[in-house]
């Protein structure tokens, strides 16, 4: 193996480790640290849905909701069938107060994967939309 391939493999290993570190930091409720760890991965692989999804989660948990919306929207541009990205985009829109848009995303997520968590979110936002309409 030549030096260039060794360097590329090493960079790939570093990005993988940074991605895993960012995941762990989010799980430990340290989203700002996760974003810092994820920086080199975002620079190297901005069009990977998994990278954008992780960044979106970190933005969401650090209340950077506009950035979270952009990341989740990018995931859905790359993979429209990602029900979890639709769910967290819906939750992001809900936190931004854009309830009708949130409801649309949450309903699609639930239709794609009818789990109780998604149904609960649909019910919650639907109730809030009805309250605002009265």
UniProtKB/TrEMBL annotation:
InterPro entries: TPR-like_helical_dom_sf (IPR011990), TPR_rpt (IPR019734). Keywords: TPR repeat. The keyword Acyltransferase does not apply. It comes from the Bacteria. Pfam families: TPR_19. TPR repeats lie at residues 49-82. Signal peptide: none annotated. This is Tetratricopeptide repeat protein.
